[in-house]
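Mods, move this if it's the wrong board.
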Amino acid sequence: MKLPYILTIVFGLLLMSNVHAAPVTYSGVTFNAGDVSFADKVISYSQGLNVGPNFDDPSQALGAPDYVNPIGSVALGDGGSLVVQFTDNSLTTSGNSDKDLWIFEIGQVEAFDVYISKNNFDWISIGTVSGQPTGIDIDAIAGVVAGDLFSFVMLTDNSAASQTGFPFSEADIDAIGAISSGAAVNAVPIPAAAFMFAPALLGFMGLRRRAKSA
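Not the wrong board. Structure tokens:
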């Protein structure tokens, strides 16, 4: 492999790192980072009571809002909970009173409790929220420090209210998005990865040249 070709690959990676997704808007809320803003992985789903078919798949809460009746949301159910993770971004603070976290619920407006975590172990309570969608300013929450990066969001049924019944009991979640979106936690940024990779490639090319000339 020729050196110029290798350098082209390295600099291509650097250029890719500077390409930003186009902003997207859902229900009047604009996410400047694009669809990468939304939760990527289900960590756990404790299905509550009175949840039926079409409303019992937690993966329906991942990605951008896409509900088309009756498919596209997951119901918490009576006493249920859902934990999701951001893997290619994180939830962070905005430094002002802007809403940082948005949760898209469908159907009847129902209250639920929200928690955020850096490690899926230590949780900070956001409180009880409701709305379609509902936005939360995490800067105003006790325990949140400016610049913190949160990978996990937990939603739990508000047990103080029995709001709807079978088959879509309690809040029905379509999507969870970090409008204040930070870097993925524990990820090596592409520029750093490229610069780490480049010396290894150059060293390998040097060894090949010496081997050929020997």
